[in-house]
Every structure is written in structure tokens, then in C-alpha cells.
Amino acid sequence: MTQPVTIIMIEDDEGHARLIERNIRRSGVNNEIISFANGTDAMKHLFGADGSGLSQKGNALLILLDLNLPDMSGIDILKQIKENRYLKASPVVVLTTTDDSQEIKRCYELGCNVYITKPVNYENFANAIRQLGLFFSVIQVPPAAP
Amino acid sequence: MTAEAQRWRAFWPILLFAAGLLVLTVISAGSVYLVNKARDDSKWVLHTIEVENQVNTLLLEVRRAESSARGFLLTQGPDFQSDHERAVAAIIPALDKLTRQIGDSPAQRDSIEKLSAAIEIRLGQFAREMDFIKQGQTDNAKALVREAAAGTTTTTISNFANAMIREEERLFRLRSVNADRSQTLAASLTGIGSGLVVVLALISIWLLRRSASIRDEAETRLRDANLNLEAVVDERTADLREANNEIQRFAYIVSHDLRSPLVNIMGFTSELEELGGDIFRRVSSLTHVPAGGPPLASGEITLEGPDKQLSEDFSEALGFIKSSIAKMDRLISAILNLTREGRREFQPEKIDIREFVEAIVSTLAHQAAEAQAEIHVEPLPDIVSDRLALEQIFSNLIDNAIKYLKNGVPGEIRIRGRTKLGYAIFEISDNGRGIDARDHQRIFDLFRRAGTQDKPGQGIGLAHVRALVRRLGGTMSVSSELNAGSTFTITLPVAWNASTRKPDR
Predict the structure, then answer these.
(1) What's the pTM value of the predicted model, to 2 decimals?
(2) How far is it, in rounded angstroms, from Cα B178 to Cα B169?
(3) Alpha-carbon gap, residue B45 to B306, rounded angstroms
(4) pLDDT per residue over B74-112, tens digit each?
(5) Cβ <8 Å between B263 and A22
């Protein structure tokens, strides 16, 4: 049976989170969105209390990740997700203000699926998010590792 | 060490030299004087002996005359007579000579006068004796001889002669002492002078050795100071590099973090704009319900009076906010790019600059054609440098030259180059609108522009170019006059390598 994909949004800026959510909804994606304003909470949710990620076994997840978090680096989160056997199949979309080519390269090396720079120009921003929504609607999230 | 002491140190050898010269002069003069004096004294000593001799000679002649006269009296031999005559003839010249010799001493003059008188008397006696003998009055002659022998004349003569000899002996002693003293003085003077010269020489040697040791010490200190200076320079350079990195990190973080709220401002402003549109559409639909007709199609907003004014004010305010945000975003992006450039490590490589510049020119050909500008690339020296940095430098400058031409005047842009003392000098000159001398510094400042603001731009290009040129170990300058074109000159090392300026760590 196909399980609806849950969107996990790790974004410390409330405004950004709100704008992203709004635009995802506008693009017609109605999947559940769970927001986290800091890395620690998000990690707890993703990896469970024991840190093994077993709690997410079998769940289809799509992770929206900001790199600049107050308590930890988004890069670390990305790395841990991609190293965890239950989570590594979940697509990760890095959505951040950083447009440094070194950083983009590093994210792709670590296994990020999409890297989006938040443009200040709102039209472009909204566009990017809506296209992401389109991407969500067609993406086939593989069943998580058994 | 104070300046005063240094002056003294420099003064010492001169002083010593002068002292040595003075001593030598004094010794020489003193020696000459004393030697002369000694010679004089000796001469006087000799003179005394001569005078003594002369007195003795005179006495001897008188005695000879006396004895020959007696001999003649006894024998009447002509031998004695001629002997007597020779002796008598010798007495007067001898006396004259003596008188001349003792002209210097008044006491002796007195004596000689008396002696002369006595000798004259004696000579008179001799003459009479000889006359008596010649006339055969032997008895008379004998009586005269006896009388003379008993008389005082002979005694007087010997007395005065002896007195003179004594006097001369006294003078001799005196003059000997004088001569001795002069010689001793000359000897002592020479001795003292030599001693002084030796002492001065010793002092000179000591001073020389001391200054040599001071110089050695100073040299050592200088070498140490140099080493120290290098260490200090390295340290400072490291500090500066650290500070520079700090500033870049700071600029990067600040500009980066400023962007985050800006996304929100822009996002929600756009949301507001949409909301505003919705509100005014709603207002319009509430106020303009066409009588009996269908409601207005959505999207058409027809407002009247104060409502229209409100809507316009709302849009205007949002417009300003949005354009300001856009501008701020451009500025932040510019700073981000600059810091990113500042962090990039250069890769020096050999570049055929002429080919390289022509490639840049060809990418700008379209803009050049639009501005009716001709670009002439003259032969340029090849250099070793960072390709990307050079591309940004040249394309910025050529782009500027095309951008700021005079309206309606066909542009002429020239790129020249030459090398000088290990540096390549490139000149990019145009016949464009030029830059006021007041703005020559300003144009290199970040976000600053000059002249008529009729072209798009942020005021970043030249700041960026200059930063790059500096990082490549070069310098950059402009010479320009308003309405008379500009020439930008870049000086770059012919062979840049990492050691010319260590890459930022």
C-alpha cells in the first residue's frame, strides 16, 4: 500500500517556514508538513529517542533542510541522514540562503537531492517553491528500508 | 648612545691628529732652535779657546822677542836679530787680531787696552835695546835689559795676559755649561716630543680599536635588528592577514545573515501586495455593484475618489519598499561576491595577454558596436598571473570604457602595454566623458560612482578591480579630465607567484 509522504521542514526562520509552506500549499501539495525551528528537535523526531532512526522505519519522508540553524549545522544533519540506513533513501531538499558554490558542491557530495537558493526576489522564490511542489507531486519516494 | 656622544667620538681622532701635528711642529721648531743655539754656544766655546790661544801666542811672541833680543845682546849674531825682528813684527798683528776677537766682551776690552799699552812700552824698550846693541853700546843695552827685567812692564803684560786667560777660562766654563744645557735641552725636547708622539699614537690606536669594536658591536646589533625586523614584519603580516581574513569572514557572515531577514521582508511584502489587491478588489466590488448587472469580473478594480487614492498610496509604498529591498539585495550580493573573490586562491599561469584581451574584446563586440566604439589592441607583454582575476580586471575596464563614452561621439578605445623593471604596465584609454579630478579617488571606493548617473551600475566594478590588482601584487591608477577621456593604468608583476604575496590561508 502506498503511504502518503510526510514533509519534514527544518527551518529556523519562522517567516521563511511560513512562506515555504504557503507556496507549497498553493502549488496544490496537501501532504502533511511537520516544521522544526531547530536542529535538535528535528534530529529527535527523525532519529527517535535512541538515535537509531528505527522509529521512522517504513515511513516515506521528504526533508526540507536549511543549512543555517541556530544549534547545529545543516550539513551535519544532512550527513547523518544520509548515513542512517532507515533514512538515507529519503530525498533531502536543501533550501537555504547560501549560494556559495563550495557549499553547494559539498551538499551534493553528501547526498543531497536538490539544492535551492532562496532568492530575495519573491517571484523567483515562490516559483522555486511551486516547482518544488510539482516535484513533490511526481516524485516517487522509495519505501524506506525494511 | 646620544648624538652628542657620537659627535664627540667623531671629533676625537681629529683632535688627536691636530695634537700630534702640533707636538711635531713644536718639537721640530724647538729642535731647530736648540740645535742652532747649541751650535752658537759651541762657536762661542771655540771662540774662547781661540782667544786663549791668541793671548798665549801674543805672550809667546813677546817672550820670543825678549829672548831673541837677549840672545842678540849676548852674541850679536844676525840670526837673533832677524828672529827678534820677526817676533816684533808678529806682535802687532797678533795684538790686532786679539783686539778684534775680544770685541764682544767689555771687560776684556779694558784689559786689552792696558795690555796694548804695556806691550807698546815693551816694544819701545825692545827698539831702544836693539838700537843700543846696533850702536855697540852693549852696556847701555844691558842696563836697559836689567831695567826692563826689574821694571813692571813684563809683569804687567803677563798679569794682564793671565787675567785675560782667566777671564776667557771663566767664559769658557760659562759657555760650556750653556752649550751643555742647550744640548741637554734639545735632547730632552726630542725625547719628550717622541714620548708625546708615542703616547698620542697609543691613544689613537686605542681609540681606533675601541671604535672598531663599537662598530663591530653595532654591526652585530644591526644584523640582529634586521633579523628581528624580519620576524616583526612576518608577525605583522600574519596579523594583518588574520585581520583581513577576519574582516572577510565578518563581511561574509554579515551579508549572508542580512539576506535571511530580507527574504522575509520581500516575501511578506509580496504577500501584502497580493492581500492589498484582494482588499481593494473587494472594496471595489462592494462599492460598485452594478445595478441589476452581474458582479464585475475578478481582477478589474474600479475605484473612485478616496478609495482610489488609498489604493494608489498603498501601491506606491509597497513599490518603494520593494525597490529598496532589491537594491539592498544587490549590495549584499556585491559584498558577498567581493568577499568570495577575496577568499579565492590564485592559480598563476603563463598568459598570452594579447590573445587573452582580444578574446575579452570579442565578447564585448556587441556592446562596442552598439556604442559605435572601436577597440584597438596593441601588442601587449605576456605575464604569469591568475587568468580569472585578469579576465575580471580587463573586462571590467574595457566594459567601463565602452559604457562611459560621450554620447554621439564615436568611441575609440586603446589597450597598450609595456614592461619595466619586472612589471608589466597596461593602459586602457578611451575618448569618453572622462572623470573629474575630484572623483579620481572616489571611483575606486565601494558603492561610489562619479559623473552623470545615466548608466546602470552599483559602483562595484572599480573597487573590485583594484582589490584584485592589489592582490596580484600590482597597483592601479587613473588619469583623466572631464570630457577628455580617461586612461586607467594597471601595473602588474610580470611573473606573479604565491611568494609575491602569500595566499590567504
Answers:
(1) 0.52
(2) 14
(3) 147
(4) 888 888 888 888 888 888 888 888 888 877 777 778 888
(5) no
